[in-house]
């Protein structure tokens, strides 16, 4: 009899887990709260061990064909004067093997891999857990051998199985907002960043998109962008105006999820639901891909949830450590720090070896991204008996 698995959340972790579980012989159902697959979204990076995962899925070339092709990054001051520029990969902390693409494009590729083999139920959510029995928002219920929460930092699965979110969420003291905006600067696969005291704003364009994406990253708990960015220079007022009417505005606290264990009985967590490292880590997508691969492989080869945690936890925790340090470099606290940073960048911009300096600064990210040995789980079929 084939083991049944319910995956809660059609996220990157959820869809990639569905692929690997089906490949290992499990019967998989995915429930997703949204009415349809989520398109668009912010740009994400696939690097390190995650490159090996997507290569084993046979989609590496496809994903590289969907790259954002952001070719340049620039830092400007309040008057809009260029302080420093660099190539897009250096600006984004990527090596040439890494792939940067839009989150929605990655989700679509993963869904297309699984759509004919996995049952997807959109517009559905779980409301209750009782052992192996799951209650749904639609009023129905069903039993599954395993239930996996891949439903993000605000995971309902985690709340039902482990307790309130506040027990596991560790806020970093910053907020983030992302949305689509008109490309009024005429950017062509470019990213431009403005840094002010306690607040950073950036805008970029990607290959094949007529609009642009704006991101606001700032310190403190104040949710009002207009209040936080009042008096900011450059194009920030125009970006705020566009954000006010953006249909896809996403805003949240910068947070991490830290748990002593990721499983309880037949329930386990994967991706941000288990170990959210925060967007500042630059590793959320890669962690999701690697975590899905390891979880499915351990379930298929007898390691179970214990094997999954034993293999994945050191990798997740090492990458979590990137978040707090990175966000402090992305958002500078005082005007004095901003001025010092701008002077340093201006000097570095004229150094012939600036790319090597920046690559050295990104070394901890790349070491963390590769800090796991991935087994070849093969096509084990231990899900059936």
UniProtKB/TrEMBL annotation:
Coiled coil: none annotated. It comes from the Bacteria. InterPro entries: FAD-bd, FAD/NAD-bd_sf, FAD_aromatic-hydroxylase. SUPFAM superfamilies: FAD/NAD(P)-binding domain. This is FAD-dependent oxidoreductase. Residues 4-159, 255-300 form the FAD-binding domain. One of its GO terms (molecular function) is FAD binding. It comes from Cryptosporangium phraense.
